[in-house]
Design brief:
The longest helix has 22 residues, at 404-425. By secondary structure, the protein is of the alpha/beta class. Strands 3, 4, 5, 6, 11, 12, 13, 14 and 15 form a 9-stranded mixed β-sheet that branches. The protein has helices at residues 10-13, 39-50, 83-90, 92-101, 104-115, 133-148, 159-165, 185-198, 245-248, 266-272, 313-324, 368-383, 388-394, 404-425; strands at 27-35, 55-58, 74-75, 123-130, 154-157, 173-182, 202-204, 211-213, 219-221, 226-234, 252-261, 278-281, 288-291, 297-305, 333-343, 350-354, 358-362. The protein has 14 helices and 17 strands.
Length: 427
């Protein structure tokens, strides 16, 4: 049996208390069966319940067990590939629809937090930090691009200004996005799960979907029960396994590593990040960091292709942290953990339908916190018969990894080595 308790992360240690949720033991009927109680599944369930659907959620482990409860906790707008890349691939009309949605996920998170009074340490403000003049030029064009789609809460930071928001000598400048921000990601998921239940939705934990019986009224089987539904939403992402073989071929789980320091105290924490913004740099293999509600520094980075857990996470991430903040050399690391996200070859999310009644969204490629909340809304719209926004995602071209599942890991790792070299050489 796979380990289905939370990994020993800072988030699990500081999670809000929640009621135990039983495993599914019998046969139930519902309008929509959602597979996966991470952000995609919970967001879908909430939007559907708000629109009168009866919803049952199956979770193989616990709410937020996967990437939703382990990520860096940053609200970052747009997609892993930006709107200009999408525009070149699909043309202006589809790109306009996707561009208009690129900033919606963050708004949905804030609406959920306010409406359902979710305690998740929500803070506004995210910084993209440039390490080279070339990266700064990219941020300038990104600002123009985002403003074209009505996104105006942006400020370019010169070298003097970025020093005022982050005490790191590495950066030549940056861009501040005040509609970005950060949250305690597991507490956000737990709060959304409580909201689902407050509207009559039912969540079963320790209830992995082991088989989907497709057909006019599909049935999802778990080890001890089954759910008969009108519709299924598959929201397992990097933790789906081979439940839906057509989805496994076009995506690859990847691991990312995160550490959390001991509490730094108000003075040291404030000296690092005076406005309490979160930060990510502009490298292809990027580092990201922020303060927690109790003034720890959470620092993440690095990618392990194929999602193996590295033996010593602290040995990988601590040197990156000290490069940014040498002043933390004597600070203890209290937690180190890893989590998987799902990478696609295009680095764009995969959204679609299998047959008439099985919908899916997967492959956020590292931009999951905001995208998953949007995906839930888009999937719920499609089930209600409003498919224009769903179709804009579903029509994005996707490709299987070269060499299939056997060779996808070495291919992606080679690509990452190349881009990592470019980062180091400043190309």
């Amino acid at each position: 049996m796979a380990n289905t308790s939370y990994p020993a992360s800072y988030y699990a240690a500081s999670a809000n208390p929640v009621p135990p949720r039983p495993a599914l033991q019998d046969d139930v009927e519902t309008d929509v069966c959602v597979i996966g109680a991470g952000y995609t599944g919970l967001s879908s369930a909430l939007f559907l319940l708000e629109n009168g659907f009866k919803v049952t959620v199956l979770e193989a482990a616990k709410v937020g067990f996967g990437a939703s409860g382990r990520n860096g906790g940053q609200i970052v707008n747009s997609y892993s590939r930006d709107i200009d890349v999408i525009e070149r691939s699909v043309g202006p009309q589809q790109a306009q629809l996707l561009g208009n949605m690129a900033f919606e996920g963050g708004r949905i998170i804030r609406e959920r937090v306010a409406k359902y009074q979710i305690q998740c340490d929500l803070k506004d403000g995210g910084v993209f930090a440039a390490l080279t003049a070339k990266q700064m030029g990219h941020l300038e064009s990104q600002k123009r691009l985002w403003e074209r789609f009505g996104h105006t809460q942006l400020e370019l930071l010169d070298q003097r200004r970025i020093r005022e928001v982050v005490a790191c000598d590495e950066y030549v400048g940056g861009m501040l996005d005040m509609s970005g921000g950060h949250i305690h990601p597991l507490n956000l998921a737990l709060g959304e799960a409580a909201a689902v239940e407050s509207l009559g939705g039912v969540i079963y934990e320790q209830s992995p979907a082991v088989r989907i019986e497709r057909g006019a009224s599909p049935v999802v089987h778990t080890p001890q029960g089954k759910v008969r539904a009108k519709f299924i939403i598959v929201a397992g992402n990097a933790y789906l396994g081979n439940l839906v073989p057509e989805l496994a071929a076009k995506s690859m789980p990847c691991g990312t590593q995160v550490i959390a320091t001991e509490p730094l105290g108000d003075e040291l924490a404030h000296s690092l990040l005076p406005q309490d913004y979160c930060v990510e740099d502009c490298n292809y293999l990027l580092d990201y960091y922020r303060l927690t509600g109790d003034k720890r520094l959470i620092f993440g980075g690095g990618v392990v292709y194929g999602a193996r857990d590295p033996a010593n996470i602290e040995a990988i991430i601590r040197p990156k942290m000290l490069k940014a903040f040498p002043q933390l050399k004597d600070v203890k690391i209290d937690y180190a953990w890893t989590g998987n996200f799902l990478l696609t070859l295009s680095r764009l999310p995969q959204v679609g339908r299998l047959g008439d009644n099985i919908y899916y969204s997967q492959g956020c490629s590292g931009h999951g916190v905001t995208y998953t909340h949007l995906a839930g809304k888009v999937l719920a719209e499609a089930l209600r018969g409003q498919a224009e926004r769903f179709d804009a995602f579903a029509d994005l071209p996707h490709y299987p990894f070269p060499g299939g599942q056997l060779l996808r890991t070495p291919f992606a790792a080679m690509g990452a080595w190349y881009y990592g070299l470019r980062d180091r050489l400043g190309f």
